[in-house]
Design a protein that fits this description.
With 283 residues, the chain is an alpha+beta fold. Helix content is 38%, strand content 24%. Strands 1, 2, 3, 6, 13, 14 and 15 form a 7-stranded mixed β-sheet that branches. β1 and β2 form a beta hairpin. The radius of gyration is 18 Å and the shape is globular.
Length: 283
């Protein structure tokens, strides 16, 4: 009987990295895609765009999609046996957010195996540039959230920390107030981790408890979204972020796109992705 293989992927600030291990954790294959040098058409420096105000920092969402395409293509060229991979999981840079536009779920569920992901998903984002952890432009929304919860300490009692500019709830609040039309057209908001998982699942992947705890939105005692935090950040937010799940949850089988294009087994499972920092703690 052949030993099972496991695929791990990380969407970090400057690159996408993939690694395949066997059931003894022996590394069988690894590769990476460097954003600045291998995808120069996006014009990033250090994997990001720093805006004119010096505070707003974003990354083109499409660049992440194209990097996953390129990483998978490299693996295929290297002769990776995708059919032996029994489970996929991964990490993403914490706090960054992805905004799927209306109809994006249909696009994810109907991907055609003869076309690359980035080609099919290029129009699937209501906001094409994702705010990331380096952004510090949301101070006003941080103070608003703390005030709504009764102060910084009260907010920390619920979510584990006071309001911080990079945390996703405050980033979403800024999007809602400064780009209301784009927010209204947003069907789903993912973290970078759950966004990456969605590409393999062929559907919206749930946010895991661990990465979700870095949003200023999760009640860390109940492991559910805090209604007060949600209301303070943006209307209709709970339906846009979905229910959080345990970090070890099996989200479902890999998509038919991945089966047909790369030869993954239809039984290969996608396990919830998490943030890069908690992922390092577990490793």
């Amino acid at each position: 009987m052949t030993s099972p293989h496991f695929l791990g992927i990380e969407v970090s600030t400057q690159q996408v990295k993939v690694m395949i291990v066997d059931d003894n954790l022996h590394v069988l294959h690894k590769c990476s895609v460097l954003f600045d040098t291998e995808l120069p058409e996006f014009g990033t420096k250090g994997g990001a765009h720093v805006h004119a105000d010096g505070l707003t920092v974003t990354t083109p969402t499409g660049m992440w999609v194209k990097a996953v395409d390129l990483a998978l293509a490299k693996m295929k060229s290297a002769g990776v046996s995708f059919d032996r991979i029994v489970a996929i999981s991964g990490t993403g840079q914490q706090h960054g957010s992805v905004y799927w536009r209306e109809g994006a779920r249909v696009a994810l569920r109907s991907l055609q195996p003869d076309r690359a992901l980035h080609d099919q998903l290029k129009d699937s984002f209501s906001i094409p540039d994702s705010p990331i952890w380096m952004d510090s432009s949301t101070t006003a929304y941080c103070r608003r959230l703390e005030q709504a919860l009764g102060g910084a300490e009260k907010l920390a009692d619920v979510t584990g920390c006071c309001a911080q500019e990079r945390l996703t709830g405050n980033q979403i609040a800024k999007i809602f107030h400064t780009m209301p039309e784009e927010y209204a057209r947003t069907e789903r908001i993912s973290l970078v981790s759950s966004f990456a998982a969605s590409l393999f699942l062929g559907d919206y992947a749930a946010i895991d408890y661990s990465d979700g705890s870095g949003m200023n939105l999760l009640d860390i005692w109940t492991r559910s979204w805090s209604p007060d935090c949600l209301q303070a950040c943006a209307p209709g937010l709970e339906e846009r972020i979905g229910l959080p799940v345990a970090s070890y949850s099996a989200l479902g089988a890999v998509s038919s796109y991945m089966v047909d294009r790369y030869g993954f087994s239809a039984d290969c499972k996608v396990i919830a992705f998490t943030g890069d920092n908690p992922g390092r703690c577990w490793s």
